[in-house]
Fold this protein.
Amino acid sequence: MLTHSHSSIKDFQGCSRRYQQVRILKRFKQAPTEATNYGQLVHKAFEDYLMSDTALPEHLARHEPVLAKIKAMPGDRYCEQKLGMKHDFTSCEFRDPEVWFRGIPDLLVVNGTKAWVGDWKTGKSSRFADTSQLELMAAMTMAHYPQVNTVKGMLFFIVPGDVILSMYKREQLPDILSRWAGHAAQIEEAVAADVWNARPSGLCKFCPVTPEVCEHR
């Protein structure tokens, strides 16, 4: 069974040929960049602060007021919790043989019927913030925690210090799941038809696929 995630859906929507070459055929791998390395450092520092009371490094200390509010939230707090969901929208382990969607929220706080999901963003601007990741994480949270009826989402943009909030309720779950099932179906139809059209854009120069495979490189 093909497994999906927010990042894999976005990769396919960005360019299905790159998706095929990188995620299906695994002929190419996206090399680490300075931005991805920095993102890993930020995620580790935030997790250590929230889960182990480790002081933030000096260059991230200005974000302590936001993180302190998160730490003060009542409930069970998790960082990088691995969530899985089957084709019938029931919860499962991340590596379950029947897993259909996977997700790893940077932050998850569960307090009775309410929950928070958060994601740390290291981009320079929140102008085009995409909360769809929070929507999917909210749905997966409700699948794993049946008592949760409301999930608040937060994107925290580290560089500008912006916080983008959203909220999801259990009555929205059918629409959310239908939307993501539709995204998955587009990929599965491409697999069945073996049609992978390139989508040239300004991001092509960062693509790991070589010119021998894609004429837009």
User: Anything to note?
Assistant: The CA atoms of residues 113 and 147 lie 5 Å apart. Residues 173-193 form the longest helix (21 residues). The two ends are 31 Å apart (CA to CA). The longest strand covers residues 114-121.
